Amino acid sequence: xxxxxxxxxxxxxxxxxxxxxxxxxxxxxxxxxxxxxxxxxxxxxxxxxxxxxxxxxxxxxxxxxxxxxxxxxxxxxxxxxxxxxxxxxxxxxxxxxxxxxxxxxxxxxxxxxxxxxxxxxxxxxxxxxxxxxxxxxxxxxxxxxxxxxxxxxxxxxxxxxxxxxxxxxxxxxxxxxxxxxxxxxxxxxxxxxxxxxxxxxxxxxxxxxxxxxxxxxxxxxxxxxxxxxxxxxxxxxxxxxxxxxxxxxxxxxxxxxxxxxx
Length: 262
Known about the structure:
Blueprint: H1 4-54, H2 73-77, E1 83-92, E2 114-127, E3 130-132, E4 135-137, E5 140-152, E6 158-169, E7 179-191, H3 196-201, E8 210-221, E9 228-238, E10 247-258
Antiparallel strand pairs: 1-2, 1-10, 2-5, 3-4, 5-6, 6-7, 7-8, 8-9, 9-10
């Protein structure tokens, strides 16, 4: 007969092994769910754009056509008049996104502090033309691709990748004084490392490298020089209770060059 102490140790070891196996399975489940969600979002975006192209919205000829899917798509894709370039500098904050609406900005401190250098290229997909009573709205559908270099004080720089579908609103009555655009949308983001501000805010929770991306931008320009734009922006990333809970918020300033401002 085995000693009682030995049996107790054996049961404890088995329990630890079961707990470890359960944790491994749970971790594997989370990874599969995250990858599946990313795949479904990717497929959904393409189905959405394909459905729009197949419908009446994109049957118009001329400048409004979503030419990315046309037979001449290769020449259109590399047409510089459909691209805009932007670079900027954003500071890492301790804020939630609602803080910015009341003008509160708290820069992250210590090892979590730092900034992100952002470089983006945005492809112009489509010009909408909507009328509501006597008002006319012509927002632009765009596909921004954003590459970032995160420079935190506590570690070496690492990379941040973002892609989204956005609407750019530009029909404002004061544009003859200050040409103004507002752009926002939704997409996906992936960082090589989780930002330290997130780890400090949620120390007991697993953090995901993959998140939802919510860009918010205000562009200002001289009415006679619309192609040169000053940009004030919020770089928001969030798990959305799918990848994880919580996220990060950066606020910055940049320069945007539009090869052809419509």
